Amino acid sequence: MRGYLLVAAFCGLSAALGWVILLQIENSALAMDVAALKGRIALCDARTGNIIEDRKSDATVTDPGNYDVPDRWLLPETGAARD
């Protein structure tokens, strides 16, 4: 009888240990997912910051005539190579 109890206790302990190992593996996978999502959020944050900065710099242009724009950019020549 005592042998059966030892075998049952060993099987229960083995099952519990296996379950803990599986939980650790799942936890590691979830931690990697969280790190990847944090990286994606940081990238989106940087893109948003760049767009906001670009719009602010565009808002400072009061007179586009202050900037030199070559005529070939505005009036394409037929048969000429493009920039």
Oligomer: single chain
Please give the alpha-carbon distance between the first and last residues: 91 Å
Structural class: mainly alpha
Order of helices and strands: HH
Overall geometric form: rod-shaped
Average pLDDT metric: 85
Biggest beta-sheet profile: none
Q: Count of helical segments?
A: 2
User: Would you report the number of β strands?
Assistant: 0
Q: Helicity level, as a percent range?
A: over 70%
Low-pLDDT stretches are: none
Rg of Cα set: 33 Å
Q: Proportion of β residues?
A: under 5%
In words, what does this structure look like?
Helix content is about 75%, strand content about 0%. It is mainly alpha-helical and about 80 residues long. The protein starts with a helix and ends in a 9-residue tail after the last helix. The longest helix has about 60 residues, at about 1-60. The chain has a domain at about 20-55. It is rod-shaped and about 100 Å long. It contains 2 helices and no strands.
Question: What's this, in brief?
Answer:
The chain has 83 residues and is mainly alpha-helical.
